[in-house]
Design a protein that fits this description.
The structure holds four protein chains of four kinds. Chain A is mainly alpha-helical. Chain A has one domain: Cytochrome c oxidase, subunit III, four-helix bundle (Four Helix Bundle (Hemerythrin (Met), subunit A)), CATH 1.20.120. Chain A is elongated. Chain C has a single domain, classed as Cytochrome c oxidase-like, subunit I domain (Cytochrome C Oxidase, Chain A, Up-down Bundle). Helices cover 67% and strands 0% of the residues of chain C. In chain C, helix 14 runs antiparallel to helix 15. Chain C is globular and about 65 Å long. Chain D is flat. In chain D, 72% of the residues lie in helices and 0% in strands. The longest helix of chain D has 27 residues. The chains are: A mainly alpha, B alpha+beta, C mainly alpha, D mainly alpha. The interface between B and D is small, with 6 and 3 residues.
Chain lengths: 224, 294, 538, 96
């Protein structure tokens, strides 16, 4: 081995981690890493979707009855809110790509605000369901014809939306970090991986909701 | 059934021995024959052979497909009880097997059956999953709470056969054993007449049916608020909101515990659940009573 | 051999002190952190196995109580499966070798790599907590409704421990996938990669796509225990069998997580110790991917008697036979590689030969349990125990031991005692077979698994098995001591003690922190023997 | 490596489509279409998710590898759902 092994390092540009050769490699690695993580997330929620599918198939009437008790206006509004936040997230990435720092900060802020609105509405819904005794457990009350299996529906509802909300909260944490590093001027049109990768996560959380909404809120609405 | 399982088993043993010996023999032979003679030796460039690859993909595939078909056909026979069976109910609970004969005899951890008869065991569990395993009959099925599982056998020789619980079920899992006692028909008759103090299963069910006030709605005429149960068993039931279901043991059981899950067409979901009000043993009596209503 | 000198700079002397280890981002140091952790868990799990075998010497349960016995086999399973076998090769040898073999400076995400080790430890601590505060008695499979309603033991901490540990698997898999895709040195094309990398890649796919399902399943168990949601409770309309579907969707592919890396190691060993390219390189490479994919389609064969439909059983049975094919093809290719090789009988090769033989038996007995008609009889008996120990101990651990010996000079820079190593390999092989072969017979005779006490007619075979286990235990202790001893007293190994090809052998032993003095450029295929090895040094 | 910058107008168009689909899916839920209700709801959800993945997440302009990861995760979810339901839907065909 050459004796100057340890000395033979080329000076690295800023933001380029030592293990990468160039910025392109780093960018592609980061993006691929996030995509692989999202594949994991798909299967994580997949276990819940499987459970949902099995029981909805077994107890369609109870699931419809449970679904009717959810606040459809809240679910619909939240869908719109999340889709809008996805738009502002996409625009934030666009602003980062074009090097517009002020717009980037603005869109990140709007995205976070919309995320908070979503969680606020969700919290209101949880409160409503609590008041109406739709939280599974000893206090659960429901039309006796469907009570047993409506409880399964509500268990799934709370677990699925709860895990989704947890992902939203993590997303807000990521967004705050994005905001912080953008504020410090780390993000440029040359280096915007973090915004792009963080954005992928945010869009994924949006997609989960896009499926949760019809599965939970829109079962046989015509019956009422 | 034991014969069929063993035939396939020994066929597989032959295949396993053949391939194990082939591979092990080749490895040892190569390792000796081509052992390194000097430290600088390298192997000869033999890097692949398409024909060989195809051969050792296709041949195992064909062998495994033969095994699959054979194994599946054995299983299909296991899962197809004949129609002329002598039925016995068993409830598994931590950590015992409770048997009930149709005539009302009850046994714990021991089941008496006549030799040469097709016997069907209808099994369920009161708590966790157990597994009904009689090695001599090559017979096993998990006994699952909330469901009826059928097993069947035809014992060809009198004797005592070991019964195990094969699904781990808690502290005294290894104590959840028992025996199937296979008797000559005459001995079996003698054993049967030995006593059924409480009357048959169906008669027990009839008493329950009255004491739980089932008969106020399920009347024998069509004036009740619930469907008529006479002649129900084995029929196809039209359901409210479309669909049909065959009225088997599982359906009757479900209708007692979760009445709203499947509503008979033309009726209201007004029946209360009996979940927690009847034990598994009593459920079996009720099921047997409904079956007896011809 | 010319006198070898230790390299002046290498990853082991690049910083001393506890902090330089606990905060390291070097994949090689993280591999060693993992190595120490899994060795600890291996011996904990092994201790439980010893106690189990001691109890089973007599048919009556006289050594420990039934409650204790149930906790012993549960913790043996949990420790061995989740804290030893699953991370064994990927997190140690894989972590160490993936960047070296592709000519990279490190994994793509070194910080995530370190995080994965801490997550692993955290999960381990949870589980150890469950252990010392009373243990768990559900079996490593956590079957409901026993685990959710009946068991009074520490189910939630144990489940959470495994839940947490799952994320370390996911991060390792994610890191490997990205690294293999994006960090290969110039010229290192997919079909020039050593087969170990193909198997690591296939394993990572399972890590990433399977582990989240066990995570959510264990979460459901915890939720069910805490809030009694009813997902698996028939009284509330749930189905206990659904749990088994979700559990085995991960836990069957997990078997391939354990054995695929060992297959990768064996491919390397056979090539290096026959000095020959692996026969049918492309076929062996794609067989790894095929196993990873098909492995996800067969989980239902754990449910043949568990109440799944007759038709589902048949579908899962035929799919199970399909996954047997690529495994068989690999065995044939390794055997063919030995044909006209220059075969060295060094310790790693002994393990490789042991692997091929034992894995063949494990695989062939898999044909028994995949046949539904036979599985009905042998499932949940000692036949199944023997079958999967042939795969996991005879297969995965043999591969792990072989790999550890093969790369030990690279990892430590020292040579171990070859004589002792050969003796130990022989003892392990004998002890293993004596332990587990009798269990096939026990199983066919009908002895159910997880039995604290058993009918006396099974005693002879059980005593044989216990005797084998004591030999096996000794076999595993010997390498621990001579490997430790070699760290200080072993002769220096030099860059390439086996005269093997492969990028990892072109750098010093131990390698420098940045792995290579210069990024190598690859112009040759894997396992190109037949020319002087020096010409491969970039 | 090529960094494709999607024009903002595309984002607005996709946003409009997503909101329209949300409106449609809620409206459709109030008509009794039998099993078509579920199919429509899920069909629209899949369409919306596809739009988000292709445009907001830039997969339309992404590498083959990104496509592979996306399709792979969907395929694996499909395996989990299909083989599990394969058991549940055939259980009633033949009493065990």
């Amino acid at each position: 081995m050459s004796p100057d092994a340890a000395a033979g390092t080329v000076p690295h540009p800023t933001h380029l981690a030592h293990q990468f050769d160039d910025a392109g490699q780093q960018r592609e690695a980061a993006s691929l890493g996030m995509w692989v993580f999202l594949a994991t997330e798909v299967l994580f929620f997949g276990g819940l979707f499987t459970t949902y599918l099995v029981y909805r198939n077994w107890y369609p009437a109870a699931f419809a009855a449970g679904s009717h008790e959810l606040l459809i206006w809240a679910g619909t509004t939240n869908t719109a809110v999340l889709i809008t936040s996805s738009l502002t997230m996409a625009l934030a990435v666009h602003a980062a790509q074009t090097g517009n720092r002020r717009l980037l900060l603005l869109f990140l802020l709007v995205t976070m605000a919309l995320g908070l609105v979503f969680l606020g509405i969700k919290g209101f819904e949880y409160h409503t369901e609590y008041v109406e005794h739709h939280v599974p457990g000893a206090g659960f009350q429901f039309d006796p014809a469907n009570a047993q299996h409506a409880q399964l529906f509500f268990s799934l509802y709370f677990l699925m939306t709860g895990l989704h909300a947890l992902h939203m909260i993590v997303g807000l944490g990521i967004m705050s970090t994005m905001f912080w590093i953008s504020w410090r001027g780390v993000i440029t049109s040359e280096y915007y991986n973090p915004i792009e990768v963080g954005g992928l996560y945010w869009h994924f959380v949006d997609i989960v909701w896009i499926f949760l909404f019809p599965l939970l809120y829109l079962i046989a609405r015509h019956a009422h | 059934m034991a014969g069929r399982v063993d035939a396939l088993y020994f066929f597989l043993v032959a295949i396993a021995v053949f391939f194990s010996v082939l591979i092990a023999g080749l490895i040892v032979y190569f390792a000796v024959k081509y052992r390194r003679r000097s430290p600088t030796d390298v192997g000869q460039p033999v890097t692949g052979g398409t024909l060989l690859e195809i051969a050792w993909t296709v041949v195992p595939l064909m062998i495994t497909m033969v095994i699959f078909v054979w194994g599946a056909s054995v299983y299909f026979a296991m899962a197809s009880p004949p129609s002329d069976t002598l039925n016995v109910y068993v409830v598994g609970k931590q950590w015992m097997w409770k048997f009930q004969h149709l005539d009302g005899q009850r046994e714990i951890n021991e089941l008496h059956v006549p030799v040469g008869r097709n016997v069907k065991v209808i099994a369920t569990s009161e708590d966790v999953i157990h597994s009904f395993f009689v090695p001599a009959f090559r017979m096993k099925a998990d006994v699952i709470p909330g469901r009826y599982v059928n097993l069947w056998f035809n014992a060809t020789k009198p004797g005592r056969y070991q019964l195990f619980c094969a699904e781990y079920c808690g502290t005294r899992h290894s104590g959840m054993t028992g025996a199937i006692v296979v008797m000559e028909p005459a001995d079996y008759q003698a054993w049967l007449s030995g006593g059924a103090p409480e009357g048959s299963l169906a008669s027990g069910g009839e008493k329950l049916f009255a004491s739980l006030a089932c008969n106020t709605c399920h009347r024998s005429d069509t004036q009740g608020r619930g469907p008529v149960l006479t002649g129900l068993f084995g029929k196809t039931v039209m359901l409210e909101g479309g669909g049909t279901v065959t009225a088997d043991e599982a359906y009757i059981r479900e209708s007692i515990l979760m009445p709203s899950a499947k509503i008979t067409a033309g009726f209201q979901p007004i029946m209360p659940t009996f979940q927690g009000l009847v034990t598994e043993d009593q459920l079996l009596q009720l099921v047997e009573y409904v079956k007896s209503l011809k | 051999m010319a006198t070898v000198l230790a390299p002046p700079h290498h990853y082991l002397n690049d910083g001393y002190g506890i902090k330089s280890w606990l905060l390291t981002r070097d994949h090689k140091r993280i591999a060693l952190l993992y190595l120490a952790s899994i060795t600890f868990f291996f011996f904990v799990g092994g201790l439980f196995a010893v106690l189990i075998r001691l109890e089973l010497i007599t048919p009556v349960g006289d050594l420990v109580s039934d409650e204790t016995y149930n906790k012993l086999f549960t913790m043996h399973g949990i420790m061995m499966v989740f804290f030893f076998l699953i991370p064994s090769i990927p997190a140690t040898l894989g972590n160490f070798l993936v960047p070296l073999m592709i000519g990279a400076k490190d994994l793509a995400f070194p910080r995530l790599n370190l995080a994965s080790w801490y997550i692993f430890l955290l999960g381990g601590l949870f589980t150890l907590y469950a252990l010392v505060t009373g243990g768990v008695d559900t079996g490593w499979t956590f079957y409901v409704p026993f685990s959710t309603t009946s068991s009074t033991s520490n189910v939630i901490p144990a489940a959470l421990g495994i839940f947490v540990t799952g994320f370390s698997s996911i991060l390792t898999g994610l890191n490997f996938i990205v690294t293999i895709h994006r960090m290969r040195a110039p010229g290192m094309t997919w079909f020039r990669m050593p087969l170990f990398l193909w198997s690591m890649y296939a394993t990572s796919v399972i890590f990433v796509l399977g582990t989240p399902v066990i995570a959510i399943t264990l979460l459901l168990i915890a939720a069910e225990r805490l809030f009694h949601f009813g997902f698996f409770d028939p009284a509330l309309g749930g189905d206990p069998v659904l749990f088994q579907h979700l559990f085995w969707f991960y836990s069957h592919p997990a078997v391939y997580i354990m054995v695929l890396p060992a297959m990768g190691v064996v491919s390397e060993l056979v090539a290096a110790f026959c000095r020959k390219q692996v026969f049918g390189y492309t076929v062996v490479a794609f067989a790894s991917l095929a196993i990873a994919v098909l492995g996800f389609l067969v989980w239902g064969h754990h449910l043949f008697v568990a109440g799944e439909s007759v038709y589902a059983a048949m579908i899962f049975s035929i799919l199970s036979y399909l996954v047997a094919i690529p495994s068989a093809v690999k065995v044939f290719n390794w055997t063919a590689t030995m044909y006209k090789g220059s075969i060295s009988w060094a310790t790693p090769m002994l393990y490789a030969i042991g692997f091929i033989g034992l894995f063949t038996i494990g695989g062939l007995t898999g044909l028994f349990v995949a046949a539904v008609g036979i599985d009905v009889h042998v499932t949940d008996t000692y036949f199944v125990i023997a079958h999967f120990h042939y795969i996991m101990v005879g297969g995965a651990i043999m591969g792990y031991m072989g790999g550890l010996h093969y790369w030990w000079p690279k990892i430590s820079g020292r040579l171990y005692n070859e004589f002792l190593a050969k003796i130990a390999a022989g003892i392990i092989f004998l002890g293993f077979n004596l332990t587990f072969f009798p269990q096939f017979i026990l199983g066919y005779l009908g002895m159910p698994r997880r039995y604290h006490a058993y009918p006396p007619e099974f005693q002879v075979l059980n005593v044989l098995s216990s005797a084998g286990a004591s030999i096996l235990g000794v076999g595993y202790l010997i390498p621990f001591f001579y490997l430790m001893w070699s760290l200080r007293y072993g002769p220096l190994a030099g860059s390439n003690p086996w005269s093997a090809v492969g990028l990892e052998w072109t750098t010093t032993s131990p390698p420098p922190t940045e792995n290579f003095a210069r990024t190598p450029t690859v112009t040759w295929n894997a396992y190109e023997y037949g020319e002087p090895i020096e010409s491969h040094v970039a | 490596m090529s960094e494709h910058i999607i024009p903002r107008r595309t984002y607005y168009t996709i946003y409009g489509l997503l909101m329209l689909c949300t409106y449609l899916t809620v409206q459709i839920a109030y008509f009794d279409l039998g099993p078509l209700n579920t199919i429509a709801a899920l069909g629209i959800a899949v369409f919306k998710a596809t739009l988000v993945v292709l445009f907001f997440m830039h997969v339309k302009y992404g590498t083959r590898l990104t496509w592979l990861v996306v399709l792979g995760s969907v395929l694996w979810l499909g395996i989990l759902l299909a083989l599990t339901m394969g058991d549940y839907l055939t259980r009633t065909w033949r009493a065990l």
